[in-house]
Amino acid sequence: MAVYLIRHGESEGNRKGRVQGAADFELSAKGREQARLLGESMADLPIDQFYTSDLTRARETAAGIEKYQKQKAVPSKDFREIYLGPLEGQTREQIYDMYPKVRQTTILRSGLEGTETDNEITVRCEKLYHLVKSIKEEETAAIVSHGGFLTIFFMYLLAGENWDQLHRPFRIDNTGVSKISWKDNRLAIHYINQYHHLK
Fold first, then answer.
1. Reported pTM
2. Residue 162 known to bind ligand
3. Which residues have a catalytic role annotated?
4. Which residues of this protein are catalytic (predicted)?
């Protein structure tokens, strides 16, 4: 059993330096090329179960993989980026000017009214965890999602519901691929943020 967790390609929001959250942005020209290269790199890896965030930048990235697979990606809002409410669409500088206290927290977990709470994030991590654990031993799965949500999911894998007590150490670049698996009910993290397909 192997599960590939994939961040979407560069979006127009990324290109413009906008904090996206769950706001919907298309891939940039560079992002479409990244998705093409990603799909080519996974062509010899048959995917049995395929899922994607329902946001455009993730679905377009998944489409780059679909060209080389029999399976079509099933979209789900459960795999969206963290919802950032009033911060979405702003640059980091604008956010820090409007909400100075965010400098002392993080943009993903600012605690501002109208943003996704830690409890809500935990529920989504649980859903992804149960999906991943349901993958059969002989199957391969791929999930296209977002950098913030995926890095928090890795924290959840390590600490469960106590993930919010950890410092978030992970970084996942556009079309960065991470691989995990379970054997005898033991988690293995094979690698995080591999993007050799872009070189």
1. 0.96
2. no
3. 8, 81
4. 8, 81
